[in-house]
Amino acid sequence: MKSIKIFTLLVALAALTACETQTNTNANATNAANTSSAPTAQTLAEVPRPQKISDEMKTRGEQDNAAPTITVVEPKNGATVSSSTVRVKLSLSGDLKGYKPMMDMETKMGNHIHVILDNQPYEAYYNLDREFELRNVADGEHTLRFFPSRPWHESYKNDGAFQIVKFTVKNGGADATKPVATNANQTMSNANASATPEGKDMASSKAGAVDTTKPLLTYSRPKGEYKGADAEAIMIDFWLSNAKLQGDGGEYRVRYSVDGGEAKYIDRWQPIWLTGWTNGKHYIKVELVDKSGNLIDSGGYDPTTREITVAK
Ligand SMILES: [Cu+2]
Fold this sequence. Notes:
By secondary structure, this protein is mainly β. The protein contains two helices and 18 strands. The chain has a five-stranded mixed β-sheet, with no helix packed on it.
């Protein structure tokens, strides 16, 4: 009888201990989730260009073999702007093969120009018949980078596609306390050219000490939020100036990592697609390095790390 009682007590104690352990584990997991946005483990794999995009390329005809070149009409390189609203005007020429930036109002997609202030995430500029404006740009020196892009955000990589200008905002009166604007503030273009420019409120930032004659990696994608089917294969894409990668006969490499994980290399200048993403926030770091893996100093713009959100 006594041994049964002791046995019962032992079982109860064991259950209690197990229960406590369980509770502790849960508590730790909850704490980890609360104090760190580190996503759960994921295994990413490089995959070929998604079929959906290959199909879209076929319907676009010759456009993807185009060689669009951008001319920056405003702001002029070296200009001083005495307003926190910086107006951008571009013209597009070159061998266009039907390439024209324009948003399809049904799908809200279309060819567009990536516009990058300093090293902020790019903004999309759809209708070149209207000006584009960057609002609330802080006083100081800035750079703007531009290159044409496809509806799925893959950049054109021909000579002359990329342009960079330096300019200075003086007494612009930007409100430094103003928070970063959301996408809701972005004025979308429509098919009709009008006096209303496309535009976006900008976060406060400064130019890097960029030497435009030196190797420069410009981060482009991924960016923002990836939902549903768009989150299956996520593209890494960038623009390279004054640098050739090893696989293209040059001396540089592009190194990237996701969520602080293992460093991987891209040795040819083309986009890659990765699958295996888990839901949540992820951090993508992309940088230009030499043969020995040393970071190329691109005036403070490399490495670039961007946060994205995946919601499958
Ligand atoms: Cu884009």
